[in-house]
């Protein structure tokens, strides 16, 4: 099931070299490798996946708006990557543990995050954004690729304890150039750790195109480590679910690590601090707009008579309600005093900490004088 090693300089060719169940125009395609893993998925479950993706796109847009209005320090958009995140996350077992990067808003949503959980960390408020043990998902990781090492270490613990869970880690195409990711794959293969690597290839590592840093499909690297891989259409939510079920079955059966490359596209900026118009061809953006993951599933369900305007409107209404709650939670957060950052750093105060507090206090005072 590992991919052929074919150059991927052409975007159109790149997408065609993937496993798929629903084509961009909404037609259902047979796939002997993936079909068995979604044989139980009915129209109601597909409508639920559609609802999830609509919710994700709306809360993502709200996050951008809050940042633009000065309520958040930063936001990492995931517009266009809804299928890759929702499809894989909804395939997870509640006991599985996820190690995300900073862009997995949809995975966090699928694991049961509350409205305020999406903004707390981006606002810089005290405390973790959510309870990692309750949601079975580690805090967002800003260091590129570091979470893959954490996932493998956790998976090695799973194997040692003979536990039934699987560790899952998400990262982007840019992270595959980091040493951490490659080292994680070496350890995972060497110790046959039950971990699933999910690479969301959104084609851009900030301003660097994937065709520059990877002359061949990224999924083709995994077999070199002894890890089976699959290259899936990341804008096909059903295919993403099937791919993750395949991977989880493999890892849970004690067969070691698995690698999924979900080929998708980052429709927005890398973060709200980025301007993609400086380096991205508008024509490429428009080409990927025709492959929209939500429109694709809508087309399939409409053709099957399983989705209508009223149901779509209801999904958007639910998303608006969630976004309003997210905004209200954000605006209602009380930011602690700046000097409180020194509290609870050490069990007992010491001279060095007091000196730093005094220096920071003097720095803050300069703003009051202006």
Percentage of helical residues?
A: 40-55%
CATH superfamily of the largest domain: Thiamin diphosphate (ThDP)-binding fold, Pyr/PP domains
Q: Given the structure, what is the number of helices? A: 15
Structural class estimated from helices and strands: alpha/beta
Distance between the termini: 64 Å
Largest sheet, strands/sense/barrel: 5 strands, parallel
Output the helix-strand order: HHHEHHHHEHEEEHHEHEHHHH
Sheet with most strands: strand arrangement: 1-2-3-7-6
What is the domain tally? 2
* Percent of sequence in beta strands: 5-15%
User: Can you name the CATH architecture of the largest domain?
Assistant: 3-Layer(aba) Sandwich
Q: Based on Cα principal axes, name the global outline.
A: globular
Rg over alpha carbons: 21 Å
